[in-house]
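Working notes for the structural subgroup meeting. M.R. asked for a predicted model of this chain before we commit to crystallization trials. I am recording the input and output together here so anyone reviewing the notebook later can reproduce the run.

Input as submitted:
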Amino acid sequence: MDSTGTNTAPGSGASTAPVPTPTPAPDLVTVPARQGLEAVDIIRRGAGLAAPGVGPVLHDGSGGTLGFLVPPGTADAWDLPGSACTQTNGRGVRFGDATSPAAGGTGWLLPPEAVGPVTDPEVLRAALGEAARLIEAADNCR
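Returned structure, recorded in token form:
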């Protein structure tokens, strides 16, 4: 018996394994699809050089926005114009069901099982900035 009076002897049926701590739900950075697709390309080109790769990315049904999963707490300090970062609190983000991640019409552009766990917010911020500059330059060439 232990100090609480619980029998934890081998074969007693009592579990001595630690109880897993739930992983906090990621936050979601939402951007216009064009900028988001450029950012995915930028991050993928730079992955492994000194920066981690892109994590799971959602797209909406109309194709107007992309959502990057980022570490929990990112929304507290996110301030990049043209984007929004919200806390998911686990709502609508189901990693075990890659075909139905959230509301109707939403799907995975990059599912969790194909990429890293989440996108580093600083890497994402830099890629979104570069993407915005590339898009502006391309639009000004017309």
